[in-house]
Design goal:
This protein has 236 residues and is of the alpha/beta class. It has helices at residues 12-23, 53-63, 86-114, 134-154, 172-177, 184-190, 200-211, and strands at residues 3-7, 27-32, 43-47, 68-71, 117-122, 159-166, 222-225. The chain has a single domain, classed as Rossmann fold (3-Layer(aba) Sandwich), CATH 3.40.50. The chain has seven helices and seven strands. Helix 1 packs across helix 7 and helix 3 (86-114) packs parallel to helix 4. The longest helix is centred in the middle third of the chain and has 29 residues, at 86-114. The chain starts with a strand and ends in an 11-residue tail after the last strand.
Length: 236
């Protein structure tokens, strides 16, 4: 069974992951609010709002059995503490955490039957703390807790569970916060040890490594793909 399910697969990091999986000969199912722009006979695109739990569960059933689950879909809702709302937290909790839970539960029977599975959750360097990211950081940090817990539960069954935590990656979502040409980007680059923004492919390569059948002795880990920002500070 070589099928992989990728959430948020229509743009940015998720699109790069889908492309690499297809290039590796995998069948891919993309779950996103928008149809996938890729035209490939081995790609199936399911349009779904993953912050809607009932819709997520239905999409998981429609997707069927998979050997690899990559939960990448996300949103930021940036706000300083005084402006953060419980609605922000609730929406991002459903999108980041509840969707991960529902999709993993749906994937488990086939993975258990095969004695093999790869689950990769996309967290964020912001889980370590970043101004204006209360709801985002909290829910992305929750994914790291899920990874460590599920790794302990599922390891004996041949299923590994890991997280990839990107730093500043140049995507549509990044430019929603910092538009192209914004003077703050230069300041941000000075705080990144490698002195550049990440590319979606940087993250996709890390996902491919963790999803590889040969990576069976790696589980419960969080791999920061952040240009070194996880070892220092990052300010916008």
């Amino acid at each position: 069974m070589s099928r992989a399910l990728v959430t948020g697969g229509s743009s940015g990091i998720g699109l790069a992951i889908c492309r690499m999986l297809l290039a590796a000969g995998r069948d891919v199912i993309s779950l996103d609010q928008r149809p996938s722009p890729l035209a490939d006979a081995r790609l199936r695109s399911i349009v779904v709002d993953l912050s809607d739990e009932a819709a997520t569960a239905a999409a998981a059933r429609a997707a069927g059995s998979v050997a690899t689950l990559v939960h990448n879909a996300g949103a930021m809702r940036p706000a300083l503490l005084a402006e953060v709302t419980t609605q922000d937290v609730a929406v991002l909790s459903r999108l980041h955490v509840s969707a991960a839970l529902l999709l993993a539960q749906a994937s488990l029977p086939a993975m258990r039957a095969a004695g093999f599975g790869r689950i990769v959750l996309i967290s964020s360097r912001a889980a370590l703390g970043l101004p204006t990211r209360s709801a985002y950081a909290a829910t992305k940090a929750a994914l790291i807790g899920l990874v460590r817990t599920w790794a302990l539960e599922l390891g004996p069954e041949g299923i590994t569970v890991n997280a990839v935590a990107p730093g500043p990656i140049e995507t549509e979502m990044f430019h929603e916060v910092l538009p192209e040409g914004d003077a703050r980007i230069a300041g941000l680059l000075r705080g990144i040890p490698v002195r550049r923004l990440g590319r979606p492919e940087d993250v996709a390569r890390a996902v491919m490594f963790l999803a590889d059948p040969a990576s069976g002795f790696i589980t419960g880990q969080t791999l920061f793909v952040c240009g070194g920002t996880s070892v220092g500070s990052l300010a916008l």
